[in-house]
Design a protein that fits this description.
Layout (H helix, E strand, L loop, with lengths): L2 E6 L7 H14 L4 E6 L1 H4 L6 H18 L7 E4 L5 H10 L4 H5 L2 H7 L9 H15 L5 E3 L5 H17 L8 E3 L34 H10 L16 H14 L3 H7 L4 H28 L3 H28 L4
The chain binds adenosine-5'-tetraphosphate.
């Protein structure tokens, strides 16, 4: 069976972008792949985190994985730092990576600017190498992620190709898997920026655990334009196009059909219906989350997941150490 790997950072409340760009695919891929889903806490500390909050966020993300439909009977769910192979492989890949290629990463450029004179952590620079280690450690075939991770998938493939060129057969070559709709959900208050956990304005995003009243407020306030026409045109109508993407991804109705449905009806109706679609889609997730989040079962699932993940990781690391001539 081919293998899928992906992860989410425990850096805050998971939002619709994370869900439509990644988590929704996590669930669908379980049918045909052996799936390995990780909570990437070592990625989270590339920027300062409050230790107590980080621990809570790890469990929040784990509970959300299960709440959206990741099935621990089928898939491996675990915390990155519980499997030592991630750090070990990351160092080995670091020695084959180049400053130039890492300097070109747009996520690094974005996250390292506006730091109010604070130093830029080296970990932020090395983020794509750790991500490559996560993926290659599990002989991954497919990586479901949002569009913002395309560059990181490319660098992972470059590293795998470079090392396989020297030491054939060391790594399985992974491929990115991007959803047709929802691969890049934009901020509701500024559709030129991606929806993000860390943006200051809470109305820029819809978190999966938002109450219906908050969802309504965020959608009704969402930036559109003045021509009143529900039409998909990212360049000229980024706000409306973003709402159409969300509507289409959550409802399964095509964008063309939605354009027809709302022809001549203005944004009021469209937004009201989108509120309903969103509230209905998120209600069962919130309910399942409440059931799971504080159950004793959650930590057991993560412990068992880490054991299963570690067993795969150890096999890969044996092969990698052999390739590089490390150890006795
Ligand atoms: N706006 C988005 N649209 C589609 N997919 C998205 N993803 C993130 N934002 C969007 C996808 O969600 C998965 C998990 O992301 P992450 O938590 O590892 O990191 P991130 O991309 O840095 O997410 P955020 O929300 O923007 O967090 P902060 O604010 O902490 O940086 C990935 O597959 C990502 O592509």
């Amino acid at each position: 069976m081919k293998r899928v790997f992906s992860g989410v950072q425990p850096t805050g409340n998971i939002h619709l972008g994370n869900y439509l760009g990644a988590l929704k695919q996590f669930v669908e891929l379980q049918k045909d792949y052996q799936c390995v889903y990780c909570i990437v806490d070592m990625h989270a500390i590339t920027l300062p985190q409050d230790p107590k909050e980080l621990k809570e966020h790890i469990l929040d993300v784990a509970a959300l994985y299960l709440a959206v439909g990741v099935d621990p009977q089928k898939s491996i769910v675990f915390v990155q730092s519980d499997v030592p192979g991630h750090a070990e492989l990351s160092w080995i890949l670091t020695c084959s990576s180049y400053m130039g290629e890492l300097s070109r990463m747009t996520q690094f450029k974005d996250k390292s600017k506006n730091r109010d004179g604070e130093s830029i952590p080296t970990g932020l620079f090395m983020y794509p190498v750790l991500m490559a280690a996560d993926i290659l450690l599990y002989d991954t075939d497919l990586v479901p992620v949002g569009n913002d991770q395309k560059q990181h998938i490319e660098i992972c493939r470059d590293l795998a190709g470079r090392i396989n060129g020297k030491y054939p057969g060391t790594f399985v070559m992974p491929e990115g898997y991007f959803p047709q709709a929802g691969a890049r959900i934009m901020a509701l208050d500024d559709p030129t920026k991606k929806m993000s956990k860390s943006a200051e304005n809470i109305h820029s995003r819809i978190s999966l655990l938002d109450e219906p009243a908050k969802i309504k407020k965020s959608i009704m306030k969402a930036t559109t334009d003045s021509d009143g026409c529900v039409r998909f045109d990212v360049e000229n109508k980024p706000g409306v196009s973003n709402l159409l993407s969300i509507y289409s991804s959550l409802s399964g109705v095509s964008i063309a059909e939605l354009e027809q449905r709302y022809e001549g009806r203005g944004y009021g109706d469209f937004k009201k219906d989108l509120v309903e679609i969103t509230v209905d889609a998120l209600a069962p997730i919130r309910q399942r989350y409440e059931e799971i989040r504080y159950s004793s079962e959650l930590k057991d699932i993560l412990k068992e997941g880490a054991q299963k993940a570690d067993a795969i990781a150890q096999q890969t690391m044996k092969r990698v150490r052999e390739s590089f001539g490390l150890g006795l």
